């Protein structure tokens, strides 16, 4: 995969709506962590019936987030996997969307924040168990808007340099959650 790929802005309202549904987010996380699955196995794992899982899988397929594994599917049993996605997929700024689509972006960001807060709550125990895998840093500094934009792009380049897709990772690689956020400190 090319590391110099241009960022892709997720500014399609349909895709934003597809990603803002809580069950669809759980399905995507499940496929990312555990690999291909059927609607039956997804339903069992997530505690929903097969019909509900199947509907949401089709919605994710409609917007290109997952794909059927045709060679593995037989009859009514369809196997699904996450689709190849851009390495640099970014959220749109609110002004990139029509006013009626902005609440969907806000909901998607709210859900992502809730997921991140749940993950953040696991940090102390993870750090105690595996300090070599649970790394953390806190920073504070003064930057111009241009400095911050350059810092962010350098961060993305580092992700591309060191992160591999699961199928390309060496046997001793582990999946790692990585987050970066910046907030103006003078708006507290």
From TrEMBL:
Domain of life: Bacteria
InterPro entries reported for this sequence: ArsR-like_HTH, HTH_ArsR_DNA-bd_dom, HTH_MetalResp_TranReg, WH-like_DNA-bd_sf, WH_DNA-bd_sf
CDD domains (UniProt xref): HTH_ARSR (cd00090)
Keywords, alphabetical: DNA-binding, Transcription, Transcription regulation
Signal peptide bounds: none
Pfam families: HTH_20
Matching Gene3D superfamilies: Winged helix-like DNA-binding domain superfamily/Winged helix DNA-binding domain
Start and end residues of each HTH arsR-type domain: 14-102
Name of the protein: Helix-turn-helix domain-containing protein
